[in-house]
Amino acid sequence: MIRGAVQPDAAGWASQARALFLKDVRAELRTRVALSSVGLFTFAALLLIALATRVLKETLTVDLARLPEAVTSEQIRAHMLPAWDDPGKMGLLWVLLIFSAFAGLAHSFVHEEEAGTTLALRLSMAPGAVYAGKLCFNLAVVLCVAAIATPAYVLITGLHTGPIAEFLVLMIAGCLGLGAVATIVAALAAKARGTGGLFGALGLPLLIVFELMLLNAANTLYGGDVTPLQSIKDFGGLISYSVLLIAVSAVTFHFVWEE
Amino acid sequence: MDLTNGRNIASSAPARVPGAWWKYACGALMCYVIYGAFFIADGAAGFGKGGDNARAVFFHVPSAVLSSLCYFIGVVYAGMYLFSSRYNNLETDAKSSIAMELGLLFCTLATITGSIFAGIQWGVFWNWDPRETSIVIMLLLYASYVVLRLALAGRPEVRARLSAVYALVAVVPAQFLIWAVPRLLAGMHPTDTLQTSSGLSLHYKLVLYPAFLAFLLVFVWLFQLRLRAIKLVSRREAVS
Amino acid sequence: MSKQVEIASILPRESAAVSAWDLFVQLDRITHRFGSRTVFEGVTEAAQEGEILVVSGANGSGKSTLLRIIAGLLTPTSGRAIVSAAGTELNGAQRRRLIGYVAPDLVLYRELTGAENLQFFAELHGVRADRAMLVDLLTRVGLRGRGRDAVGGYSSGMRQRLKYAFALLHDPPILLLDEPTANLDTNGVAIVEEIVKAQQMRPGGGLTIVATNEPRELEWSARRVHLGPGA
Q: With an 8 Å Cβ cutoff, are C127 and A6 in contact?
């Protein structure tokens, strides 16, 4: 008779989620499907951005309203500003990160669904644990992508980071929302079996409001005279968006997961 | 088409057509609104072109309000479908989807009328003020709901579940749309171009408030018609 | 957490070879439809601990669907599949814990090795899968020495064997076998018959439900459900 040490209680919810996360990491390190597709996409996109913004980066502009009545060229030069300011650069960075993430994150659920391994998972673990495990994995992928793409983007576009701690909080809060949206949408898209296009069509509309909030936080970040209260409000808004989205997803996930 | 809990749309009693009186009332009211928009309300002061373009308000604002209301109704039905065993049937799903479809319709109407108004008033058809941004995001949310349903055509139970989940998940951006976006964008566009309703004259109230009612009645009517159409299709499928 | 306490309370102690399980599967007028197509209607049957229930029927008669319903993977259109142990009806989490399942559409991870697959699923079940236990299990299904190969490189027969290792990981008292000997050679068939026999004599009690049309497997039990016309 075969018997493993059957422990009196089944594996808890958290340890199931952890096991799934580690399984995904191990499979990912072996096949590198998500990382290589996302990585290549990001690299190509960075190259495109570098080429497309080469001129824009050097363009300067003048706010006419701020100029005195009779202007000398000296005064104009003194009022020159870069046409592409830091909040604008931040906006494009997030467009890049969102599209990169969407290039690879569908994989987590679509792969299980296509390979047919969802049945084995349904037989072995709680739906909530599946959601938690996949969320963790997607967050890890998004954070990896952001960690690699952001420095490269900073080099290419000359984006300033501003206060580094706040910049990091902004980036991490953004990754959290991106991962949260991508996870539930990947689950839906995988069930609908209409992979690539559907994933974007369902996910991007959910992210537009979030992107607006990110841009607003970026405005605050680069605004200069910022009260701590304002940054707390901005980051709080971003994080509460992600937390709410994760909560709704967790409550509804088993309707997607079960047959 | 069968329901998950064994009940059947087709076998339930044919939908009784409710009294037609309120539909006549709706027609009369709509006629009044159209007449009133051009002959009762004066051109509004402060608007260009003698204020005539402000008459778009009577059609634009009710559509915009309805487009939010539809989303609310759709989400309530979606929640009932998922969480109440009593309403866990395809009829609830149909109601949810009809509310969303009508939401898409009214949202589109509101976007078009708003854009025309903006074009005449400010000379640009689109300038990304908070309301314009909100409504175009709303339009996208509705559209992606419809796209999801299209992708799941032919699998009614799965379609019902997944689209209900999507409707509930989209509540999060919709919420932030209502609370956060106007404030965020007001920061970006310091000139608030929106008119507040506190300045409405009596003439305007006399037309605008009936317009809300008329549009609401049109919504209820359309809702019933769509539901009956869906029931007929499902009955035909059950017979064949 | 209350769920886990419940599970704990119905799990027998290692030493308790008593049939404290009192396993019972009851199919209560189960009807299932996909869209407007009725797969089967009013299926009623019961099986007790120590028994084998054989489900037969033509292709498309819903054998796999019935097994999925019993496993709790699918909610029937009407009727109920009651799985109970020690007088308690099992909920979803408890069914996952007490049911082992082998089916043609069960797929394990191709990119992982056989042993890694087993280790992963053991972790999900809260079973400590040490090396000795994995070797034991792989030996039992005739895959000894192949545990380190990626499942993607397995033949279909080897995959079928691995599914048995997957199903037996958590030593489940209830086995649901859909086409139990699909893709298996003579040796494999013998292994399956050995497993089914052992399941009936399992300390703590065992119950097996088999969906098949193989004449040889139909002979495994007199207790049968026939699905489809004439049922």
A: yes
